[in-house]
Design goal:
The complex is a heterodimer of chains A (about 210) and B (about 220).
Chain A: H1 2-7, H2 15-62, E1 69-74, H3 79-87, E2 91-100, E3 103-114, E4 119-126, E5 132-139, H4 147-151, E6 155-156, E7 161-162, H5 190-210
Antiparallel strand pairs in A: 1-2, 2-3, 3-4, 4-5, 6-7
Helix pairs in contact in A: 3-5
Chain B: H1 3-13, H2 24-30, H3 34-57, H4 67-89, H5 91-97, H6 108-118, H7 123-153, E1 155-156, E2 178-179, H8 193-222
Antiparallel strand pairs in B: 1-2
Helix pairs in contact in B: 1-7, 3-4, 3-6, 3-7, 4-5, 4-6, 6-7, 7-8
The chains are: A alpha+beta (about 210), B mainly alpha (about 220).
Chain lengths: ~210, ~220
Amino acid sequence: MSTEAQTKEKVQMDPKYIITLTVTLCVTCIIVAGLLGLVNLVTKDPIAAINKEKTEAAMREVVADPDGSTFSDALELTDEMTAAASGAGATLTEAYGVTVGGEAGGYALKIDTSGSQGTITMMVGVDADGTVTGVSIVKNSETSGIGSKVMNNEIVKATGVHVLDQFKGKSAADGTLSVGSNIDAISGATVSSRGVTTGVNAALAVAGVLG
Amino acid sequence: MNFARQFKEGLITNNPVLVQVLGMCSTMAITTSFFNGIGMGVAVTIILTLSNIIISAIRKLVPDKIRIAMFIVVIAGFVTMVDLLLQAFVPALSESLGVFIPLIVVNCIILGRAESFSYKNGVAASAVDGICQGIGYTLVLMVMCIVRELLGAGTFGGGILGAGGILEGGALGAGKGIRIIPEQFPIGVLTLPVGGFIVLACLIAAMQWALARPKKEKEESKS
């Protein structure tokens, strides 16, 4: 320890110098923060509009009637809803009410589930009867050329059906969905297919809570 | 100040990626489509030029002990601005580059140029340095993008050309690229990170070979 202390260079502790350092850094940070505030002021609204548009576009993909549906603002997530999703093995991040022709038409649920390379964020549409109306992938980092086949909704060769379209029409009455029994995986991409299936199960569980 | 010399340094003899070997993270990660390469290159060039100008302008006011902290504050400020502006006005690019835009803050090219060039040189020279180094970086990205996209996915100009691209009235970033190699033949591994390493290694090797050659000839002629 003592040798270390000896070899260390003695720092000049001139109080004036320290104050100069502090003031310079402080002023720079304040100027930069002020400029960032200005930029934020200009970009805040367009960014919010784009995010809303993106979420809406993702929701439109999963409802039965894309043109006739309107969406509520994000619903507050209750403990019951999040517990239902985590019970099924995935995480509920956002929930929106869907209105079709003035009547309650189910929900659009944003779910995080684990794929083979990280989190898959997906949107699941569930109608008022608790039946899945559509599944779309919002964000993923699955292996390009393997897991990405599931993400791009490619055709399962054995059955000739698009992999994500299999979920349409499934409901809680079908029991827990699982790859191999009532869902077909794309060969080589079993883990990604399982992840998506878990997400749909979670969505159905949440829809069950919402009623 | 010698513009031609600085330009040659940025592009060839002191290329930020191939000779200084800086900014590897972004070089490897985003060079999968033409659109990404150009977008990242332009973003880095703009940030590099601006931060070079500012750092060179304030270099006499900055106490030596805290210069690195000051550099980072200035760079982070510009990166955040560019990030916000991209999110607001070029959402397609912002989405496809994702986290690599905020990560420009820690792109060593920018900090490296601040420390080794703009902290010691005048404003004009630093601005030119920023542009030249930026162009050098962008060119390498584009070469990597073209190679990886062509051999890895079999297309050219992904994000800009091809079906749904801007030439056909589509949105920026939507183009599928022009297919050159039929779908079943490309080497898929080249679009993965490991492919980035391989392509970059080949480029660096080629660059070093090209740079070493003239010297060798001279030595041979001497002896």
